[in-house]
Each structure stands twice: as C-alpha cells, then as structure tokens.
Specification:
By secondary structure, this protein is of the alpha+beta class. The chain contains three helices and eleven strands. The strands form three sheets. Strands 1, 2, 4, 5, 6, 8 and 11 form a seven-stranded mixed beta sheet that branches. The protein has a two-stranded antiparallel sheet with strand order 3-7. The longest helix has 30 residues.
C-alpha cells in the first residue's frame, strides 16, 4: 500500500512580509550609502580645529594652513625673501617648478609669517623649502600659538590627495603647478 499523499508545502503568510521588509531595508541602505557618497564628494574639506583656519590664497587652490610650521631644507631663506601675503609666498614656491609636467619642483613647501603683531621683525618672511617626503612633511610646530602659515605645492605628476597635518582636517584641494 502506498503512503498517503503529502499535502503540498505552502509558504507561510509571514514569508512575503519578511521579504518585503528585507527588500525595503536594502533599498533604504543603498539610498543612504548613495546620499553619504554624494555628501562626501561635495565637501572639499572638514572644518579645521579651533585656532587654525584654511587660508585661500588663489582661486587655483593655493592654500595654506594657519598655525602650522613645516620644517624642511630651505631653498630660499625667508630673511632675504619677504612677500606681502601667503598667496604671494605660495606663488613664489610654484615659480620654482621649471618642469611641472614631470612633477619635479625645486620647492614643494612654503612657510609665511603674516601676522604683524606676532611676527614683529619676521613679518613677511617667506621660507621656500624642499621636503624629504612631500606626502609626509616634517612638522616643527602647530597650534594656536604658532605664528606661521604653511602650504604644500605638488607637481602634476604627484598625488594630490593627502591627510592634513591636523587630526580632523582632510584637504582635497592642494596647490598643483
């Protein structure tokens, strides 16, 4: 005698709701990831810590970070090289890149003293420097008590994204020759 026929297996009523909720969760997750990605791409940098600020030197992204002194081998001494602004100091560094298309620059960092009150007799000094490793510049001092503004210059052949020297500031706009 054959065994009795088994009834066909049917889905439980809750399976359709579970799949619907799972599908809705996946759609919301994808939408949130897309929104976060767009927000990330639309922000050029996060706010610097208190006491320091980004200095816009030129429309072409020649910027510096106030309250930061970058060390390095001097290619032009600041005591003999005085300029009116951080923008001029950055431009002076960029001018030392004879062949920017290959990434070779004699100057890849600059330090400017632009606060008359704190700089006193060093006001206007623009130190042009060469780093051992441009992607990891040597920092001698940083913070509210530092009177210097520093910046980096990259040739076109170099990577133009780096984490800034402050913990929470990401710079995606770096001066490129």
């Amino acid at each position: 005698m054959p065994p009795p026929p088994t009834p066909p297996l049917t889905r439980r009523p809750s399976d359709a709701r579970r799949r619907g909720r799972l599908l809705l969760f996946i759609i919301v997750l994808i939408a949130a990831a897309a929104a976060a990605g767009l927000a990330y791409l639309s922000v050029s940098f996060t706010a610097p810590p208190s006491g320091s600020s980004m200095v816009l030197a030129e429309a072409d992204c020649c910027r510096g970070i106030e309250g930061l002194e970058i060390w390095g081998r001097a290619v032009k001494w600041g005591s003999d090289h005085r300029l009116p602004s951080a923008a001029a100091c950055c431009a002076s560094c960029k001018a030392m890149c004879p062949h920017p298309e290959d990434g070779a620059c004699r100057c890849d960092s600059w330090v400017f003293c632009g606060d008359k009150h704190r700089c006193k007799d060093r006001f206007g000094e623009c130190w042009l420097k060469k780093q051992k490793d441009t992607m990891a510049p040597a920092v001698i001092a940083r913070g509210e008590d530092v009177m210097w503004t520093s910046g980096l210059v990259f040739g076109k052949g170099e990577v133009v994204f780096m984490q800034s020297l402050f913990q929470s500031t990401t710079i995606t706009c770096i001066s490129v020759v």
